[in-house]
Design a protein that fits this description.
- This protein has a domain at 37-56 and 68-150.
- The protein is 27% helix and 15% strand.
- The protein has 3 helices and 7 strands, in the order βββαααββββ.
- The chain has helices at residues 56-66, 72-92, 99-107; strands at 23-25, 28-30, 41-44, 110-111, 120-121, 134-138, 144-146.
- The strands form 3 sheets. Strands 3-6-7 form a 3-stranded antiparallel beta sheet, with no helix packed on it.
- α2 (72-92) packs across α3 (99-107).
- The chain starts with 22 loop residues before the first strand and ends with a strand.
């Protein structure tokens, strides 16, 4: 069923829902499974850490423990690390963590390196400074292959 119960007047899924795993959000298709069509190109805001220098050891352990993994886990790991560091800074200052003071510490984040292969620091709008986009081409068997930048 489409997200939010959205269906065409005749009860059919709106066009594009099948390609998106059968779900829609705000009238747009939502991917509920990995795209595995060979030749398709996807744009992601997270790198494949198996190609990030310095991440070899953690990528190896993750593969041994979980098998294959995609680009969502490392980004979540990095975001959780930022929040944990902010909470630790609040506690170190002798304060009780709250939404307000943790957010203020997150804004001060200045990590020189991260699992993503880049520093983590935010501008005044809260955007990641030096944010990158990654192009992946879906290869045989659904394997994502990084498209090199020119």
């Amino acid at each position: 069923m489409a997200g939010g119960g959205q269906r065409a007047a005749d009860g059919r899924e709106p066009q594009g829902a099948e390609q998106a795993g059968g779900r829609l959000r705000h009238g747009r298709p939502v991917l509920t499974r990995p795209v595995q069509d060979p030749g398709l190109v996807r744009v992601l805001v997270r790198p494949d850490i198996t190609g990030v220098p310095g991440d070899e050891a953690i990528a190896k352990v993750a593969k041994e423990k979980f098998g294959s993994f995609g680009t969502f886990g490392p980004g979540t790991y990095a975001a959780t690390h930022v929040v944990n560091e902010a909470i630790a800074a609040v506690c170190k200052a002798g304060e009780q963590p709250s939404r307000k003071n943790v957010l203020e510490q997150i804004k001060k984040t200045n990590l020189s390196e991260s699992i993503l292969g880049q520093p983590i620091k935010f501008d005044q709008k809260g955007d990641l400074i030096g944010a990158k986009f990654f192009l992946f081409k879906v290869g045989q068997g659904g394997k994502y292959e990084l498209v090199p930048s020119s």
